[in-house]
TrEMBL record:
InterPro entries: AAA_16, P-loop_NTPase, Sig_transdc_resp-reg_C-effctor, Tscrpt_reg_LuxR_C, WH-like_DNA-bd_sf. It comes from Streptomyces melanosporofaciens. The lineage of its organism: Bacteria, Bacillati, Actinomycetota, Actinomycetes, Kitasatosporales. CDD domains: LuxR_C_like. GO terms for molecular function: adenylate cyclase activity; ATP binding; DNA binding. Signal peptide: none annotated. This is Regulatory protein, luxR family.
């Protein structure tokens, strides 16, 4: 929207009419940044609508100043590619091989005193080419940001604007106020050749109101509009920036937002305030600088000492600053607006700012202020000579870590490393502290700093302990450089059997990391299981090191299914009983215990432990946050709570976008499990198009993506392709020793696909093999699923018996989704009658609670074709029927609670129970069902 620029448009239109009559001219469009030069230039081609005027455009940019003849090429590009009858390469060739000279990549430019320029014949040739085009129609030549034009193009423009006579052309150049390339006579030649200089004026109050209306869709309050107009000083760019910021914050153009408008930090106001400050006496400038530097610690005594004022002078100067309009109150050292802070800082040199921050740090330190307050001042100083500076920064980093701000801690520690006095183990300790802070958001930097610290440490134990600060990759392969580093320090340290105390614990933790690094090697997995068996039936879990090693070894037993689910569950729970739930566990192999419990179908007791773990950390954008969300998604998926699991998995994937190496694989695994349970083709396609294929060769990720590809093929009816993919995946898993029937349940799916493609023999063989594996492993979810697969293949009365057995087994499972699927199949197999209806009703309630719409629909379809079911309201209690009726009347939870005299939480609980019993997914489906219910 272009406002109040009619005069400028009229002048350019007048110049075009004169050019059509043979009087060409240059128009210079100038003004301060943001006044709207570019917007006006973009509007000028509209003047050619309905007229036979040819428009040539070029936009200069700082990054393109080294692009020789960039602006000239832009102007001539449309002519070179135009319709027949316009300028073409062949026609340019008539002007002394002009095409090769100007537009080829090896154009022979001349060096005029270090500045590239064009040969004289090229300058004349381009003008002749324009003359040929202008003979047919007048030209409007637009060049924006003249200050950024490359030197050869500027040379041609300076040549052209002096020779416009006879061209029938208007050249309009935009130039920012106050910008002149030092000693550039060509730019001056162009500027001086302008016949008209247009300077768009600031917007009026009326125009400001129109901009407000456009931004918010409603007219702004009069007081609000005046505040915007005053703050922006009519500058269109600044006005729109202010309004956009307000809109993003959800604010409306009302009088109540006037203070919000005035508290913003407009650059124009900042410069005006800075100019006002520069003419103040030295004491006023010094005190304003002291207030800006000390910020929230601007206490009178500290301010006076930092500004070098005595008490009387301090009070007098405060009064002066208030009269100037910089302070909120006469005797209060607080700036009127945040923009004043910007103005004060912009009026200081870099050296002045550093000197003041260094002096402020010393004042705060000697006055016993907290380390982070002192460190905040030191952060603004490149090099401080204070002997206490490093320890203060280190203490501030510790404080930041304890309050859950690792990035802030890392900044403090990086600043401490700039101290040149640090060397040897002192520098190593600082590097290790920095790596510890970084491992949650920048693991690559963590590894780099640990590698720098290790050569500075004097003992093998210290070097090994430092290497352990690198977080392990829970699923997938860790960086080879990190694994090599672990091997190196482990070799120096020696085996745990030869060590005692802390050194032994370090050796055990190193062993855990190295054994986990081999979890895709069948020989390493077998060795790890043997090591686990050697620990005995009751391995020592006294120290954290022993628990970490046991967790890794137990993971090998899970992947290989060499132990039973019951044995895995018992030992995993023993580990968690002895392991406090803290957020730091994500930097150890202990999250492997969660995978083990998921595989063992023993997750009912872990939710509270994970909740405690999550409570100990602050949510942010770190690797640890991604892994915590993955664990929650895995446990919810194992319980069949798919819709809830999706929320955590989606969040984990978003966090893993910037931490792919550390969390990308495991988050993709979690989301794929959700996508498969939901049978969501859009989500499956998104996973397959994601970064997984390009970024990792992890066996777990490869298998997961193969599952997703098989699901995509099966969903499109490509049964054979899906089967081939699954069988290839199974062979790869078996070759690696991964035999767990819960983590990668490929056989049940492959058996079903064999049945679909007409190979019942192969289907039966896979079903039998899966049933054998499931019985050996012993997890209810695996056994119940295997029984269902076999029952589906056999059918008949024997199939029903197997389905009943599957239901009995799955009732002991945490996975309600698997139970719902078996109940659906059983309900279909049963003859019409009350039992079939009851079975399907239970299946529907479970499927709705799990949040799986496709299964809910199948159960409804099956229920409709079977015996008459009990009326839906029969499943509800009296209170649940009452709450449902209130919801049907359109009451909110709070309104229903008020009518019943209970809490809104109680209403929510009754609604949730009703959803489960009725097999609906939420309030909308409940309301749709109400007309069929007698409430």
């Amino acid at each position: 929207m272009l406002l109040e620029r009619e005069a400028e448009l009229a002048q350019v239109a007048e110049a075009l009419r004169a050019a059509a009559a043979g009087d060409s001219s240059l128009v210079l469009l100038t003004g301060p940044m943001g006044i709207g030069r570019t917007a006006l230039l973009q509007q000028l081609p509209m003047l050619a609508d309905g007229e036979e005027i040819r428009v040539l455009r070029a936009n200069a940019a700082p990054v393109e100043q080294d692009f020789t003849l960039g602006v000239v090429r832009q102007l001539f590009d449309s002519l070179l590619t135009g319709a027949p009858g316009e300028l073409h390469e062949s026609r340019l060739g008539e002007e002394g091989d002009l095409y090769r000279t100007v537009f080829s990549d090896d154009a022979p430019l001349l060096d005029d005193g270090g500045t590239l320029t064009m040969p004289e014949e090229a300058l004349y040739g381009l003008r002749s080419a324009l003359a040929a085009v202008s003979a047919d129609s007048p030209l409007l030549i637009l060049v924006d940001d003249l200050q950024w034009v490359d030197a050869p193009s500027l040379r041609w423009l300076a040549f052209l604007v002096k020779r416009l006579h006879g061209l029938r052309a208007v050249v309009v150049c935009g130039l920012r106020d106050g910008y002149r390339r030092p000693g550039d006579p060509l730019l001056r030649e162009v500027v001086d050749a302008a016949r008209r200089v247009l300077r768009p004026a600031p917007l009026s109050l009326g125009a400001t109101k129109e901009v407000i209306h456009e931004q918010f869709g409603v007219p702004g309050d009069e007081e609000f509009a005046r505040a915007c107009h005053e703050t922006s000083a009519g500058n269109p760019l600044f006005l729109k920036s202010v309004l956009a910021e307000l809109a993003v914050g959800g604010l409306r153009p009302t009088a109540g937002q006037v203070e919000a408008v005035r508290s913003l930090r407009p650059a124009l106001l900042r410069e005006r305030l800075a100019g006002s400050l520069r003419v103040q006496p030295r004491p006023a400038r010094d005190l304003a600088a002291a207030i800006a530097v000390l910020g929230g610690q601007a206490e009178p005594d500290l301010l006076a000492r930092l500004a070098g004022l005595d008490p009387i002078g301090f009070l007098a100067t405060l009064r002066d600053l208030h009269e100037v309009g910089l302070l909120a109150a006469e005797q209060e050292p607080r700036f009127l607006h945040r923009v004043v802070q910007d103005a004060v800082e912009s009026s200081m040199t870099v050296a002045e700012r550093e000197r003041l921050h260094d002096a402020a740090a010393a004042l705060l330190y000697h006055n016993g202020r907290p380390a982070e307050l002192v460190a905040a001042q030191l952060m603004a100083v490149t090099n401080s000579g204070h002997p206490w500076a490093v320890e203060v920064l280190r203490a501030a980093a510790d404080t930041a870590l304890r309050r859950g701000a690792p990035r802030t801690a890392a900044r403090y520690l990086r600043r401490a490393l700039l101290d040149g006095s640090l060397a040897g183990e002192g520098r190593a300790r600082l590097l290790i502290d920095l790596a510890t802070a970084e491992r949650g958001f920048d693991p690559a930097a963590c590894e780099r700093h640990i590698s720098q610290a290790i050569p500075l440490l004097t003992t093998p134990r210290l070097r090994a302990a430092a290497a352990l600060r690198i977080s392990p990759t829970i699923v997938g392969l860790g960086p080879p450089s990190a694994i090599d580093l672990l091997h190196q320090v482990a070799e120096d340290l020696g085996p745990a059997t030869s060590l005692e105390g802390t050194a032994r614990d370090v050796a055990l933790r190193l062993e855990a990391r190295l054994r986990h690094a081999g979890h895709e090697d069948p020989a390493e997995l077998a060795a790890a299981v043997e090591r686990l068996s050697a620990l005995g039936e009751e391995p020592a879990l006294i120290t954290a090191a022993e628990r970490e090693l046991t967790a890794v070894l137990l993971n090998s037993a899970v992947l290989t299914a060499r132990w039973s689910a019951a044995e895995v569950s018992r030992l995993a729970n023993r580990i968690l009983e002895r392991e406090p739930a803290t957020s730091e566990q994500v930097h150890t192999p202990l999250p492997l215990v969660v995978i083990g419990l998921v595989a063992a179908d023993s997750v009912r007791g872990i939710s509270s432990w994970l909740a405690m773990e999550q409570q100990t950390r602050r949510q942010g954008g770190t690797v640890a946050d991604a892994l915590v969300n993955v664990q929650q998604a895995m446990v919810l998926s194992a319980r069949g709570r798919v819709s809830q699991a999706r929320e955590y998995a989606e969040r984990a994937v978003r966090l893993a976008e910037v931490h792919w190496q550390e969390a990308g694989v495991v988050s993709t695994l979690a989301l794929t499990r959700v996508a498969l349970d939901l049978q969501d083709p859009v989500l499956i396609e998104r996973i397959l198009d994601g970064p997984g294929r390009r970024r990792s060769s992890s066996l777990a990720l490869t298998a997961t993506l193969q599952f997703a590809k098989a699901a995509q093929d099966a969903g499109n009816g490509r049964w054979t392709s899906a089967l081939e993919t699954l069988l290839a995946c199974g062979r790869q898993l078996e070759a690696s020793g991964w035999r767990n029937p819960v983590l990668f349940a490929w056989r049940p799916w492959a058996a079903e696909l064999h049945r679909r493609v007409g190979d019942p023999g192969a289907a039966g063989a896979l079903a039998e093999e899966e049933l054998l594996r499931a019985r050996e492993w012993g997890a209810p979810v695996a056994l119940g699923r295997a029984l269902r697969v076999k029952a589906r293949l056999i059918g008949g009365d024997q199939g029903v018996r197997l389905l009943r057995e599957s239901v009995d087994v799955l009732r002991a499972s945490a996975d309600e989704l698997e139970l719902a699927r078996t109940l659906l199949l059983l309900g279909r197999q049963l003859r019409s009658g009350g039992e079939a209806a009851a079975v399907l009703q239970e299946a529907g309630a479970l499927a709705a609670a799990c949040g799986v719409p496709w299964l809910v629909e199948r159960i409804r379809a099956a229920d409709g074709s079977g015996a008459s079911a009990a009326p839906p309201e029969a499943a509800l209690t009296r209170t649940e029927r009452t709450v449902a009726s209130l919801v049907g009347r359109g009451l909110t939870n709070q309104e229903a609670a008020a009518e019943l005299g209970v809490s809104s939480r109680a209403v929510e609980k009754h609604l949730t129970s009703s959803y489960r019993k009725l097999g609906v997914s939420g309030r909308r489906e409940l309301i749709e069902l109400l007309p069929r219910m007698d409430l």
